[in-house]
Design goal:
Elements lengths: L2 H16 L12 H9 L2 E5 L8 E2 L5 E2 L1 H14 L5 E5 L4 H7 L5 E2 L7 H6 L2 E3 L4 E3 L1 E6 L13 E6 L2 H13 L3 E6 L2 H9 L5 E5 H9 L7 E3 L7 E3 L2 E3 L3 H20 L15 H6 L16 H9 L2 H9 L28
Parallel strand pairs: 1-4, 1-5, 9-10, 9-11
Antiparallel strand pairs: 2-3, 6-14, 7-13, 8-11, 8-12
Length: 344
């Protein structure tokens, strides 16, 4: 065979190997991937139900931002977003069950902190939601800023949230009477009964509390945040393959929004020439097999749950009654903090 013939044969082989229909060898299953496939469904845990994040709908089905993230992972791994068992678990029980293999992923409702990142044998896959402690007050108070607050009874949880409230009050020389509770559900009850004039808690929870009010328009969440909280799914620290699977499922959601790929148009993009869209669809590159998944795993994810923006709007948009602005959770292109590494 001539040199030119050998070059031609090599190029042909490369084309065949990278063609969309070409058989590609998947990386061996790690312990978590093997367990999920053997079980036939993903087990995802979160904290107590919170409107917008995880709650049962009228049909008795779990819905919300956290649930959609878990459905995305199920679609990536099993090709079926409904192959999911969603478990609400209290406090550290989420991480105990994660360590023992009873849970595959702990969803967003546990803020990323040094303690959680080092104490429970867990690691956080990515930052997908940014939050912070805020104030809920009656519209009748005519307050438009937290810096206006003074001489108020403020319901707050004991611990870090109480400490942040005290630090904020000191910084603006405000006089707050703290009404302290151990359980956040008690905050809502106390506020509804007039036992305090304001509530200070994570803004995402205040959104849910405001939605539950008889007339949400009578309540206002002030714009300032007196703390920062970073949220994302956590997985066991000893399974790198599973970490990569969860990471790149999340990154696919974000990259899809950047590229304008949605659950509505994804099926019409098979002839796309743009490299980043072709990679999202599994038409170019060999990204899925390197972590034990099918080449089109990202396409399955987007078709099942949409991109990051679709998930956010479905759970917090105008149609939900919450009408939460993206704010920090907008794409970096739009001045937010949401971004992901490139698929290349």
């Amino acid at each position: 065979m001539s040199f030119a013939s050998r070059i031609a044969a090599t190029l042909l082989a490369l084309v065949l190997l990278t063609a969309p229909g070409a058989a590609q060898t998947l990386a061996p299953d790690g312990p978590t991937l093997a367990a999920v496939r053997a079980r036939g469904h993903l087990v995802c845990a979160s904290a107590d139900p919170i409107a917008g994040f995880a709650q049962l709908n009228a049909e008795g089905r779990w819905v919300g931002f956290d649930v959609d993230v878990c459905r995305a992972i199920a679609a990536a791994v099993l090709g079926n977003p409904d192959a999911l068992e969603f478990r609400p678990l209290p406090g550290t029980a989420r991480f105990a069950d994660l360590q023992t293999g009873q849970v595959d992923v702990v969803a967003r409702d546990a803020p990323w902190t040094l303690g959680r990142d080092t104490r429970y044998g867990a690691t956080y896959a990515a930052s997908i939601f940014y939050d912070g402690q805020a104030f809920l007050v009656p519209e009748a108070l005519n307050a438009v800023s937290a810096y206006q607050l003074d001489n108020l009874r403020v319901c707050v949880l004991d611990g870090d949230q109480l400490q942040r409230l005290q630090e904020f009050a000191f910084s603006i020389q405000a006089n707050f009477t703290e009404v302290v509770y151990e359980d956040r559900e008690d905050l809502g009850v106390a506020y509804g009964q007039g036992l305090c004039d304001a509530v200070s808690a994570p803004a995402s929870w205040l959104v849910a509390l405001r939605r539950s009010a008889p007339d949400p328009s009578t309540q206002s969440i002030l714009p300032e945040r007196i703390s920062k909280s970073v949220f994302g799914p956590a997985v066991r620290a000893d399974d790198t393959q599973w970490l990569k699977i969860v990471q790149w499922t999340l990154f696919a959601l974000i990259n899809a929004e950047e590229a304008g790929v949605t659950s509505l148009n994804i099926e019409s993009l098979s002839a796309a020439k743009t490299h980043r869209i072709r990679r999202l669809l599994g038409l170019e590159g060999s990204f899925g097999p390197s972590i034990g998944l099918q080449p089109d795993f990202m396409k399955k994810v987007i078709a099942a749950v949409g991109n990051y923006g679709e998930i956010f709007d479905r759970n917090f948009g105008v149609g939900t009654g919450a009408g939460v602005s993206r704010g920090q959770n907008a794409l970096w292109l739009n001045g937010g903090l949401i971004y992901a590494p490139n698929i290349e």
